[in-house]
Amino acid sequence: MADESIFDKKKAHRAKHAGRKAEKKKQKTKVDQSNLSARQRNPKAFAIQNAVRAERQFRRREDVIAKKQHIPQVDKTPLDPPPIIVAVVGPPRVGKTTLINNLIKSFIKTNVTNTNGPITIVTSKKRRLTLIECNNDVNSMIDIAKCADLVLLLCDASFGFEMEIFEFLNICQVHGMPKIMGVLTHLDMIQNAKTLKTTKKTLKHRFWTEVYSGAKLFYLSGLIHGEYLRNEIKNLARFISVMKFRPLSWRMTHSYLLADRLEDITSQEMIRRDPKVNRDVVLYGYVRGVPLMKESMVHIAGVGDMKISELSYLPDPCPLPSTEKKRHLMERERQIYAPFSGVGGIVYDKDAVYIELQGSHSHKREDELTNEKKALLKNVVETTETVDEQMQGSGFKLFSGGAVIYPNMVKDDEYLQKNNKTADSESENDDSGDETDSGHDSGIDQNEKDGKERLPWNNSRSESENDVDEKNNEEINDKSDDESTDEETNNGDFSTKWKEKLSEKATEAYFERQKTSKNIMKLVYGAFEIGNKTKDQKDDTDDDTSDEEEIGGLFKKVTDSQKKKHKEKEILDLDECSFFYALNKPILRNWASDENKQYLIDSFVSGKRSNDEDASELLKLDDASDGDEEIYGDFEDLETGEKHVAEKDNKETGQKRKAEPTNFEILDKKLKLKAKFDAEYDNPDDHRIKGDHSYYENLKAEALKQSELNKSVFENLDIGLRIEVEGFRPGLYVRMLFKNMPAEFVTNFDSSYPILIGSLNMAEQNIGFVSCKVKKHRWYKKILKTNDPLIISLGWRRFQTLPIYSKIEDDLKCRYLKYTPEHVTCNMHFYGPITPQNTGFIALQTVNNNHNEIKQLGFRIAATGSVNEINKSTNIVKKLKLVGTPLKIYKKTAFVKDMFTSTLEVAKFEGGRVKTVSGIRGQIKKALNKPEGAFRATFEDKILMSDIVFCRTWFKVDVTKFYAPVVNLLLPIGEKSAWQGMKTKGQLKRENNIQNDANKDSIYSEIKRNPKVFKPLVIPKELQKGLPYRFKPKKNKIVVPGDKKNVIHDRVAVIKSPHEQKVANVMKMLKTNYKKKEIDQKKATKDRIKKHKKELDEIEWRKLKRQKELKKKICRQLSKMSNKKKPQM
Amino acid sequence: MPAVIENDVLVYKGSNFFRQRLLLATLSGRAIKIEEIRSKHDDPGLREYEVSLIRLLDKITNGTRVELSETGTSVYYQPGILIGGQVNHSCSTQRGMGYYLEILLALGPFCKEPLNAVLQGVTHSDLDVSVDKIKSTALPILLKFILVDDGLELKVVRRGAPPLGGGEIVFKCPVRRHLRPLQWTKWGLVKRIRGVVYALRVSPTMANRVVESSKGVMLKFLPDVYINTDQCRGPNAGKSPGFGISLVAETDEKTFYCAEAKSVEGGKGEITLPEDLGQECAQKLLDEIYRGGAVDSSFQWLLALWMSLGQKDVSECIVGPLSDYTITFLQHLKEFFGVMFKLEVQRSGSDEDSDDEQMPTAQKIKMTCVGIGYVNISKRTL
């Protein structure tokens, strides 16, 4: 072998390195430099030269990128968004109304005479605005802050910022900051140009500190003919129309609407009988935020929690222009809708509604519509004809009205149609023949209209029609009627025969079940009413059906509803079981048998894959897309004009068809590949050095995908069903009926107060204990006291409650505080509506707009904070010291009394720690029988009778269950801003001039101090004995204090003998002599010393004189000598 | 049967779906009243196991109010706030532990503190899903919604067969502020089959015989079949004899199907052959695989619940044919939360396949809903 290989070895090929061929090849392989990037052309220049610098650069770049990143949020703005709420806020008399009028004029070129309530206008092809003015009431300010998207904060420049503006900004910060633009007015009041400039500047900077630096502040320089300058307004309008908005977390979880129309539909008769009767009120508005669910509770700010008893949507009264391609809005598309202001057709007075008949075309149409609606409603209510008659009456109209057929609606909606009888309601709706009306029928009628239209996928149709026939058969047709899936659970009967049959039946049903393709939604949601229909209508139809039941007066047809009831009864008390085959065991298919196995084997990885997953299929596709197209495809010979068509072997393709990839499939695959390529290479950022941003990118992509899905998934659904599944999406104009509204809401209605209707999510209608962190506002003058009523604006609500402040200790215990601490947050508990965590709130002590009160308070916002936790009980404790005294003391045991009042109390504290004042610790052991409440305790040392024993415990403080919504909208006009809730005790006392009796100990009085009298010192006799004499108390010595001279010396008088007298005299004389002598001597000595001193002085003087002369001589000599020397020099 | 609403209290009739109603009431915070509970039965009123459920709910909530009528035929239930934390509950032996555990599983993510529940009772029963099934099938579903597994755990400490039980499990569940929306429209192909056979107070050979027979069936479809035997001894075997099997099929998209079978209770005269049991269970599993869908048919309702409790985004999942229990659950969801699912029958395969109408693959249903934006209101933020 080896030898052969040597022989077989051929000469290897050597490429040419020189010569013509080599040159050519070089030219060919040479890379074209022209379209290379700098980096590719010159890679060295981009290499890392300095590792440290590169690291720093990288780090900085990453920092910058990381700072830019925000948590991706799913974009929930609907395709046709609701109008943007632009609120005009400011203190009174700054020009709010003028601004609104000017804006409206600039947008839609019409003058509005009075502006009341929200005014909706179409401003551009994609944007509508709702302008609303905020009156000078803190309640309105709060409500406006909760719903406004954009706030125009007006300020009188000649006056400066007023307290209301700061209050409003604080409210905004707490409830989610809307976009804020400042507008300075009254600039013409400042004459001096320099003052004007400085004013502008200071105001701008003050505004920036409050909002953010760089916040937009507009200057409206003055009025001309009662209007602002046109250019300035136009500028402002332009800014408004390009404004972008950020989603706010509260509004992204709650739906809300600002009512712009109100109707009282209570029957006049009832009102006549009792003017205070609860009203049925209809409110209208655009849904905002998130989709509004049909059965949700809502809170109407200023009124209270309400249940929507009827919710339906209406055609948009102020629609965006159609999607026709053009640049500007046409004149008739610049619509305005403001019922409260009397522009949208209807004017509200105190007790009447006026409909304005003149106006532009759109208004007129609106009127017609509403009138029609009313007529329609009446029609429904006063139905007298039977269903059949109505059916006949509306028969042909049905088709004329139902010109628009949406096949995709039929697909999902037939479930609604339990029986044809519901048609009466629809047919009535059809009467109007209006396109808009048919638009909001729930799609059922569409189904009726094209009843015979059979869609390829809708096999079920025939089945359901067959149902009717089958029902006539006496047997309970469980099998085919899949509507009643419950039949399997049908073993209430206990006869054995039945039981035998049962499993058979179940098995049958089981096979049936798997084949079934009947409309599943009907099966599940058949019992509920769907779409815009109301309950009353449904009841009507029920009654009708009951009338029809009897046949020939003898037999009763078993109707659907009865059968259903029967079935319900059967499953009523069954055992609950979540298995697929709940209580009975059908005989399953034998999956192991070969014929059944084939259906199942593909569900395993070992089985055959579907076409788009199978590797071999994919390969085939690849091949097909690469080669086959070119080779076998059709082509045209351009020169000859001949057309060559690929030969198709029809016989073969008939069988092969499935395996061979079609053009469509290839195209599909190519698209997929393209998408993959795009995803990988189209992102230009990816070329740089990659940090680990994949996590963030994934999150972003996920959010984007979700938002796309949200928008697309229900797009083709019929609107009635869509609303049912998705809720009333934002942007729809809805009508909501509230029953049993307080009459005051209508009678005291004032359109200058906004009606904010906010929906409550799950569990938010409940009331519990809310724990939150709170900080007293640093501008508020007083500190807040525990259990003083406080008005809190939280979520949609404004309410008064009694908070308890506390501090969280290190062991997470809430310790009661009587007052809020200054400059730090503390905890607060109150009884109020359950609101999700992290929701912000503001607290006020009063919402009363009393001028004096405001002046006194200055800044009204007392505190701000956010919710921490919700619970159904609280645990706030306060320190408590129980004090007792020893009753009897043994060695280390003592009986203690007075600490407790009963044995039971002691029992609760057994094992508790006690302590004496002197610091001896002990433990409570057991209660004593005798003095009630006394107990035995042991201590670490013997205590004294004089010791006080105390036990330190915590006392639980309960939060008062008080919750009162601020119902300012119910107050009479003019008093709406004067809502007064619970008053503090102090307030009441001040008003009624009640003064407490002062504590006696606290009263100041003159201090009278008696001199201290000490007891005389008594020295015991025994001690006296032992004392040295001088310490012994001397007897009979009476000392009168303070009177030294009168010391009565109780001594024995001494009488001298003559000799002794003589001696004494002599001694006296001698003493006198001696004294005299001493004095003389002293005098002589003094003189002598004087004389001597004189002599000494003289000697000294002489000496000095001699020295002086000597000095003189010497000096003279010295000077002479110097003089002699000088001439020589 | 739709509920009647009397001043914001939902009024239901009958004892069936008691558990669903209490669960949804607890989550939604709405009060309910259930009337006519077995009012026409020989022993009317609530059963022991239902009372035990109420007790359990009372343990994991704060502020719950329950009013029973004297005869026990009507209950008023006003839910409190979910607390969770350490819970110890001895379940009624009338029902399996699955009856209680499913509720804890559904409520677990919404408690104030992470749930750590110890349950005693019957771990395997005919009426309820066994703890094995919940462990293998339901926990992965929850994991899809909470995404991060920080302490989701189910430990079977002891097994207990009916009628006396004696089993014990520990269930731990983390808390979440909200669930994420879920799109789950692919369930993939079955890639492996695992199983557990347990034998309590019976001869160990029983377990091996069950393994053999069930494996025999499953191997026809897939080579990757492993079945463990769990021979319990002493106190770990509970108080009653019994044996059973649970088989789990895992797909490559992390869907789990589970089937289980157990021997009949001792002393009833019937005898279960281990071979039959194995066969039966394997057949059930194949049936479950045939039905397909993203989740096991027993937990469709849990999927529906968590989908509807998600954020205000669209969730969509494809499941197999809806069980009766799920259908009523969907109706209850509509009543309590106002959530309506869009249900579409999914056409599986191309049109040609359905021509041979003998047996197409089982009907698949696409469930689409918008979450209600449920947030865990009990959790504390600091």
Number of strands of chain A: 38
The dominant shape of chain A is: extended
Radius of gyration of chain B equals 21 Å
* Helix proportion range of chain B: 25-40%
Major pleated sheet of chain B: 5 strands, mixed
Average pLDDT across residues of chain A?
78
Number of continuous helical runs of chain B: 8
Give the strand line-up of the largest sheet of chain B. 1-2-3-6-5
Which H/E pattern describes the elements of chain B?
A: EEHEHEEEEEHEHEEEEHEEEHHEHEE
How many beta-strand runs of chain B? 19
Distance between the ends of chain A: 135 Å
Query: What percent of residues of chain A adopt helix (DSSP H or I)?
Result: 25-40%
* Strand-pairing-aware structural class of chain A: alpha+beta
Query: Largest chain-chain contact?
Result: A-B, 89 and 100 residues
Low-confidence parts of chain B: 349-358
Characterize the main sheet of chain A. 8 strands, antiparallel
What is the tally of helical segments of chain A? 34
Q: How is the quaternary structure best described?
A: heterodimer
Approximately what portion of the residues of chain B adopt beta-strand conformation? 25-35%
Strand content of chain A: 15-25%
Gyration radius of chain A, in Å: 52 Å
Task: List descriptors.
heterodimer; A: 1129 residues; alpha+beta; 8-stranded antiparallel beta sheet; B: 382 residues; 5-stranded mixed beta sheet; 8 helices; 29% strand; globular
Structure report:
The complex is a heterodimer of chains A (1129) and B (382). By secondary structure, chain A is an alpha+beta fold. The relative contact order of chain A is 0.08. Residues 358-367, 383-499, 531-550 and 628-659 of chain A have low confidence and may be disordered. Chain B has 382 residues and is of the alpha+beta class. Helix content of chain B is 28%, strand content 29%. Chain B contains 8 helices and 19 strands. In chain B, helix 3 runs parallel beside helix 4. The longest helix of chain B has 18 residues, at 274-291. The chains are: A alpha+beta (1129), B alpha+beta (382). Chains A and B meet through helix 19, helix 20, helix 23, helix 27 and helix 28 of A and helix 1, helix 6, helix 8, strand 18 and strand 19 of B.
